[in-house]
Predict the structure.
Amino acid sequence: MKITSLLSKVQARDNYLVIDFSTGEQSRFHWIWLRDNCLCQKCHHPQTLERVVDTWSLDTQIVSEDYKIADSGTNLQLTWPDGHLSEYSSVWLRSHSYDTERVSDGLPDPTPWSVNSLKSRPSISAQSVLGSDQGTMTFIRQLREFGFSIVTDLSPDEGMVEELAKRIGFLRETHFGVDFTVESKPDPNNVAYTAIELKAHTDLPNLEMPPGIQFLHCLQFDAEGGESILVDGFAVAEQLKKENPTAFDNLTRIPVLYRFLDKEWDLRWHSPAIRLDHNGQLEEIRYHTALTGALDTSFDDMEALYNGLRAFTEILRRPEYELKFKLMPGEVMVFQNRRVLHGRAAFDPQSGPRKLRGCYVDCDQAWSKFRVLQGLNKL
Ligand SMILES: [Fe+2]
C-alpha cells in the first residue's frame, strides 16, 4: 500500500498516546487499545488472523514503558512492562484512528438522491458483472452509493437472476421461497401478486432482519401500466430531518409493529421506521403500510408515531423523489431493500403479461465481496 501518512511526533499522556501525522492530523490512542490491538503473531493468530490476546486479562491501567518512532516515520514501536514488543505501521494507525473521525468501513459513502440530482440511472451489463471482477466492483459500488443499479442484457429466462445474485452473496430464503415470481396470481397472499398499484415500500419489514438487497428481473412485459418506482429512503429521511426534526427523531425511536399474515405464517417484528448506525448515520428504513400491524406502541407515543409516519409519507410521495421507469425484459432492478423503497403503478393483466423473477441477498456479503476485491481483507 502506498504510504501517505508518516508519524512525525508521539507524546505520552496518562492513559493515551498522542500521535502527530505528517499530513497534519493528530490522533489519540488509548494505551489499553494499543496493547489490545498488538498485531504480532502472539496476539493475532498468523493463519486465522483472529485475536488471541486475552483482552480481559490485560491490566486496564497499562502504560507503555518505552515508545518510539522507527523506520523514518513508517512505524511506531512500543515496549510494554512485561517486555512484550508491539509495532504498528503509520498507515494502519491512520486508517484505524477513532479520535475525532469515523473509521472507514472500506466502502464508498451513500449518496442520497432525488430525481433531479440523479444524472442517469446507475447501470451495468450482466456480462460485465458476471464476467469480470472490475464489473462486480462497479456494480457493488453503485449499489452502495445510490442504493440501486439496473443490470442490463440478462437473458430473460428463469434461473438467470439467481446466477447474477450469487455473484455477490448467498440467496436469502424467506417465506416467499428462495426465489419468487411476481405476476398477477389467482389466489394472492401479498399485494405484489395482484395487478393493483403498489405504493413505494421496503420488503419484509416484518422480519427480524429484512433482506438487504433485492433483485427483480423482468422476464415479460407487454401489459399496459406497471411502471416501476424507486425512491431513496435516505434522501426522504434527510429531508424529513430538515423539515420536521421532531418527526424524524420520533421515527428513529418509536417502534412500529410489522406483520405478515396468511394461512401458514404470522411473522411479526417491531422496529423503528428509521434506524441509525453506530455513527449516527442512516442505516435502515422499514416502511410498508400494507404490512403494518395494529400499532401497539404506548398511548403517549401513538399520535407522535402517526404524525411521524404521515410526515415521512408526504415527502416519500413527492414527484421529485419518485424515479419512474418501465423495466424492460432482460433488465434487472437491483436495490438495497432497507434503503431504497420500490413500488409499481397498477397494470392491466388483460392487456398482456407482466412477469418478474426475484430473489434476495444480504448486504454484509456484498460489502465483503467489495472489500476482498479491493484487497482490504487484511488485519
Ligand atoms: Fe415489494
